[in-house]
């Protein structure tokens, strides 16, 4: 059962989404250390959804259309804000001396918000955990917590790998201005696409 959970989780985590994309942006723009911080921030963004699923609050998003729409639209707007920021920030993939410095706290804040405003993540936990934890289990909450923490560890590892691979390609990107511009605009477009996808998502 635990192996099935790991395989299911890895498939979901490895599928590129907003968190992975943000980690790649930070890896390309700021290098290895910053990509690790971004991966940690995206992982922390899972905590509210994990708690919501364990306490049953995710059921509200799954059944209350108004609550779902509010959180969903907030998430879509935030992704569009990220897209505009990336599009306009010409210093994003600039050399170290020309690039705007970003604090670890700021990076974590952005990463947490990206996941926080995604109601599909809460519903995912609500749908996933009961498949591996029986409601009849007297230690159900403990088991759900264990599975959720395992999911977070896997998320951090996979996202960190994404970021490290991006950081490894950073020097090649910085040496080619046209490629930098193309990547920056492509990443902005990807955030727009993910924002629109979230805005049009159904429960």
TrEMBL record:
Topology within the bilayer: Multi-pass membrane protein
Main location: membrane
Key words, A-Z: Cell membrane, Membrane, Transmembrane, Transmembrane helix
Localization of this protein: Cell membrane
Taxonomic superkingdom: Bacteria
Family matches, as Pfam families: LysE
Residue ranges of the TM segments: 6-25, 37-61, 67-87, 107-129, 149-169, 181-200
Family per similarity comment: Belongs to the Rht family.
Protein name, as recorded: LysE family translocator
Source species of the chain: Ciceribacter sichuanensis
């Amino acid at each position: 059962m635990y192996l099935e959970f790991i395989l299911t989780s890895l498939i979901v985590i490895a599928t590129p989404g907003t968190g992975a994309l943000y980690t790649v942006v930070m890896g390309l723009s700021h290098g290895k250390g910053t990509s690790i911080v971004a991966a940690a921030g995206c992982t922390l963004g899972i905590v509210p959804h994990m708690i919501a699923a364990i306490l049953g609050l995710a059921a509200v998003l799954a059944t209350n259309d108004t609550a779902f729409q509010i959180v969903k639209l907030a998430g879509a707007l935030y992704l569009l804000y990220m897209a505009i920021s990336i599009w306009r920030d010409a210093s994003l993939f600039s050399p170290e001396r020309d690039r705007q410095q970003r604090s670890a706290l700021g990076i974590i804040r952005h990463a947490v918000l990206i996941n926080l405003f995604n109601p599909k993540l809460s519903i995912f936990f609500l749908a996933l955990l009961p498949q591996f934890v029986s409601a009849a289990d007297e230690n159900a909450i403990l088991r759900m917590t264990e599975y959720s923490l395992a999911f977070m560890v896997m998320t951090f590892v996979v996202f960190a790998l994404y970021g490290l691979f991006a950081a490894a390609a950073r020097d090649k990107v910085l040496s080619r201005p046209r490629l930098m511009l193309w990547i920056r605009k492509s990443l902005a477009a990807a955030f727009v696409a993910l924002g629109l996808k979230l805005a049009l998502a159904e429960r």
